[in-house]
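Reopening closed ticket. The problem is back. First fold of the pair:
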Amino acid sequence: MPDKKNIAKPQPSEVPASSASAAIDVFLNSARAVGPSATAEGRPRLVFALDATMSRQPTWDLACRVQAEMFQVTETVGGLAVQLVYFRGFNECRASRWVLAPGALTDLMTQIACRGGQTQLGRVLRHVCNEARKVGVKALVYVGDAMEEPVDEVCAAAGDLGLLGVRAFMFHEGGDPTAAAAFKEIARLTGGAYVRFDGGAPQSLAGLLRAVAVYASSGVDALNRLAQQDGDAQKLLTAMGRR
């Protein structure tokens, strides 16, 4: 049976798989065959979570192009294991296996189309809490533009995440004030950072993701060293309240 790792309990009925869903199944099944011990054992772990509702298609395409840089910048210091989490449509929220190769996530992401639906950030945070308890997670990167859930429930999950030592780096596209307030509070509760970015400037998101990857793989000292010559690392440290 294909390895579809749903964060929530399976629904009583499911829409028949499309060709895109079949491609996702192939990827997830292949990742399972490799086995977690062969791909991620002993590596620092980062969850890369994306809002894949309909408004996010341009930023999803951008994330596909720049996410590989998260891996590349950490190769010289031992690498980073990354798990992709996304939500879209009606109650669909999925997570990949932990992988090391940037091409693996790129191949998966290019098969996923955004669909209309509401945000499911609370489910993402609860999933990361579960992963942190099981295998340990250093950081969460979240990219989104909206917040359509009870903020108190989401912040309660963020508080749990903070107690587990997982910093949430909340990347916000656009100017929605509700999302801004919620993302800032999640960042505060976890000791992470809230950063606005322009989806029309891919170099900005790429640089910020590189900076988060350095923190996740090697800690604040390494991020401080990078910030001596990298403006995006400086921006991230400022957002974390360390400058």
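Second fold of the pair, where the issue appears:
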Amino acid sequence: MASFRHCGDMADGSADPDVQITIMNSRVVALVANDESRRELAGDQLYLDLDLSGANLPPGTRLDIGDAIIEVTELPHTGCRKFADRFGRDATVFVNSGLGRKRSFRGINARVVQSGDLKVGDVAQKLI
């Protein structure tokens, strides 16, 4: 079971609150990892079977997952050199292609609105 807690203000040296959580689509990570044991190498905290595109989850959208509420933030999640090293150039080009960016294949960033516990199998629901 995971717990998400608020990080403090960046002025005190803590993490940027707009990138507290990285989320990747579970089907995309399965495709680029090519093996279930390699999926965690993407480095994200959440893997959801959910359309992560800006059209479906624009910045400000809140998701209720388990006991937690998170909010999608504006900063794009494009991956880093580690992603390319672990999954290769083709995977990096794919997730950052025009379609990949439009659909947020590499994922999205979020911040914690309400701390809480969640577990594998909890359903993420958009709050309106």
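Update: turned out to be a display glitch only; the data is intact. Helices lie at 26-33, 81-87, 89-95, 98-102. The chain has a mean pLDDT of 89. Please close again.
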